[in-house]
Amino acid sequence: MPLFFQHSINDYSRLAVWKITEPEDFFVQEMGFRSQINNSRKRLQHLAGRHLLKLIEPSFPLEKIEILQSKKPHLPDKEFHFSISHCRDFVAAIVAPEPIGIDVELIDEKVKRVKNKFLSFDELLLLKGSDDLQLLTLFWSCKEAMFKWDGHGSIDFKRNLIIKNFYFQNEAGQVNALFKKEKEVPLSIDFRFLTDLCIAWVKPHQE
Question: 52 near 90, Cβ under 8 Å?
Fold first, then answer.
């Protein structure tokens, strides 16, 4: 069982990361249903994400999950709030009593090529001209987590998702950010680096 990482944020909120090494039938047998997604890789990620939700919260009602027009999965009765992220063979999931967002990213050279598409001038200043892959991946991952926290789509990553400052020590830390659309919402995002992996999640308010 390749549970790669798990973390209890507080008494009500938990997250975990799974590294997929199992065949599809493993997840089918565990959960008793098959995914209708055509693409085999996406189907495997889909099943692994649902399996991880059950691992985090055994009472999670998978059968109640609905997909919003923005493609965000949710529970209509809001019994739990949750977020799932996929990156190659890794799946991350978080369950909390309030809106939440998580992202998992592999640290990869490609982020250098797209940094000007998601980082504002002020955010580039925060990096002090650095092309450090770890920090660029962190900023991208934090914005993806904010995007999932909102869940409504139609987001400009430069204008609506703003990173104000950050700090970290011993491969973990926090980003202070601002979600700016119809209204402004300050957000704290926790993150952790695990070898060549970055995990970022919007910090629940219920501490």
Answer: no
